[in-house]
Amino acid sequence: MKSKDTTQVTGAVSELQAQIWLLNQGYEVFNNIRGNGPADLIAWDKENNTFLPIDVKTIRPYLKSNGSKEYTKPAKTIMVNNVRYLGYSPDEHLFIWL
Questions:
Q1: pTM of the model
Q2: Which residue has the higher pLDDT, 49 or 77?
């Protein structure tokens, strides 16, 4: 089992990678400065003038018994306050909307 420190570092790195990816997708990105709540980031879509609360989750690939690739789904992905979940696989540097 990972230590709490390792999990926090992995989560922080995933959030930073997500910020870069969202910026490259054309969003303005803001951190949740409170440090708690349902969203890690707020992304602003300038074209549509909409805000998107985002919770970043680290995901890992695994092979199913039939040989197809799947990604772990975090246990906490219940929609709260229209928060979108963005999965990041650090092993593949891949982002997936969950």
A1: 0.82
A2: 49
Tokens 């790195």 map to which residue? 13
What is d(CA 86, CA 43) in angstroms, rounded to the nearest whole number?
12
E strands along the chain, which residues?
Answer: 27-31, 41-45, 50-58, 61-63, 69-71, 84-89, 94-97
Rounded to 5°, the CA angle 81-9-27 comes to 45
Q: Tokens at residue 8, please?
A: 């926090």
Please write the tens of the pLDDT for every residue from 39-55. 999 999 999 999 999 99
CA distance 73 to 31: 23
Rounded alpha-carbon distances, angstroms, from residue 3 to 6, 8, 15, 72: 5, 9, 19, 19
